[in-house]
Amino acid sequence: MRDRIFNELEDIRKKGNYRAIRYIKPLSATRLVYEAKEYLNLCSNSYLSLHVHPEVIEAACKAAREYGAGVCSSRSVSGALTCMRLLSGR
Description:
90 residues, alpha+beta, 2 domains, three-stranded antiparallel sheet, 3 strands, flat
């Protein structure tokens, strides 16, 4: 079984279809550093650059201070944070 999985992964790599996570450091709304080299980010879906807007960042910090960073379980087990209800419009 291990050999079969290894061979399948090797085949995927050889075909150029193996996906790996790239760890980047954002510099701005449009620029980033990857492996010590600066790049223009042409694949962002943050069309309005809200991910770097000071008010959005402050709101995220405020929410993290008030609610923490999660409930440490699935929503079906421990429930969802009450702030998520506001986002869902319910």
